[in-house]
Write a structure and sequence with these properties.
Elements lengths: L1 E7 L4 E7 L5 E8 L6 E8 L5 E8 L4 H14 L9 E8 L10 E2 L2 H9 L8 H14 L5 E5 L9 H4 L5 H7 L8 H14 L8 E7 L3 E7 L2 E5 L21 H10 L3 H10 L2 H6 L4 H9 L3 H25 L4 E5 H6 L1 H8 L11 H4 L7 E2 L8 E4 L4 H13 L5
Parallel strand pairs: 1-6, 6-8, 9-12, 12-14
Antiparallel strand pairs: 1-2, 2-3, 3-4, 4-5, 7-8, 9-10, 10-11, 13-14
Helix pairs in contact: 1-3, 6-15, 10-11, 11-13
Bound molecules: adenosine monophosphate.
Length: 403
Amino acid sequence: MKILVLNAGSSSLKFQLFNMLDLSSLASGVIEQIGEAQGHARVEYFDSSGNGQVLEVRQSVPDHRSGMELMAKLLRDNEILTEVSELAGIGHRVVHGGELFHEPVLINDEVIEVIKELVPLAPLHNPANITGIEVAMEQAQNIPHVAVFDTAFHQSIPEHAYLYALPYRLYEEQKIRRYGFHGTSHHYVSKKAAEYLNRSFDEMKIISLHLGNGASVAAINQGKCVDTSMGFTPLEGLVMGTRSGDLDPAILFYLARETGMTIAEMDTLLNKESGLKGICGNNDMRTIGQRAERGDAKAQLAIEIFCYRLKKYVGAYIAALGGADCLIFTGGIGENDSRVRAKSLANLDVLGLALDTKKNNSRTDTILEIQKEESRCKILVVPTDEEFEIATQTVERLTLPSL
Ligand code: AMP
């Protein structure tokens, strides 16, 4: 039997097919530019002789329904998944589960209603996730569907860390609090790190740094998340590709008063025009790194600001945890950019973090251990795999004894 993982974005549909027995990947793909004049599908899979194959299709994909049909056709025509009945279940990524979902759930009408009620908290993500679920449930009716929430891992954060110092009624009436995101990734890499170190996840203090286009830090104590840098929305915390991260909220009052900027314009400013892009005009760390090497001062400044914010969070989370056994780098930047890793951990020996330059500059596709021998805290680079984690959690949910 097989497990299909679906991640529906506003104009894209990512999918990955796993063998349920060992969770080996059978195929993965993405359909992009859904709703645009020309869509693009790409699927990577292993054929019956075990050879890797890549398929590319360009055609109009007007909506998620046709995207899902195209995915099913590509899987069927290439004998990757011939019948829907080969599926033991479908796992759906859902960005916002609010305070209601602490773990994966089997999807029924009531669950869909609750995810819909959470749309105001995640207006960009939850509607696309719901469309993906509704279309998949129509097309695969007799298969169990499981929702895996990005926010779920953070539901263990204690009240003193998730509440803002605002009038308490705003939490009661509007549910304004820290929710945190990237939970599936933080959970996956921290379990992987414990396994690699041959230690029990439930006895470790871990700081997980997910550094991609979006970036967040999580503090994990004895297997439970106790704080994270993203907040009510994924805007808070670290400097990101196009998001500002932390800032003085009074800047917005000032801008409104002095420039007449509207709420929509401020939303665009902070979410799409700030972060690395706001400082140096580019949001891709690879390009910024190349510019910095050529002596571009704005690119160097963007890296400096990114790493300084990160360093402050590392210090803060060591304080929150009372020390750390392991610090993890993951995400596109965390996994690949040794300069960012070195800069953000420079001079933190005092906190027990001593990076080994040579190890930091080496590469592997698996886990890389990059601390000096004398470092109190292990420092690991762990490639993230959110789809694998969703598949794992889907299988766990499907095999619970209550079923
Ligand atoms: P993600 O959102 O996890 O896909 O990460 C995207 C970010 O990772 C972008 O800023 C990329 O420029 C960055 N990235 C990917 N590969 C590298 C690399 N080899 N070196 C530096 N940054 C990279």
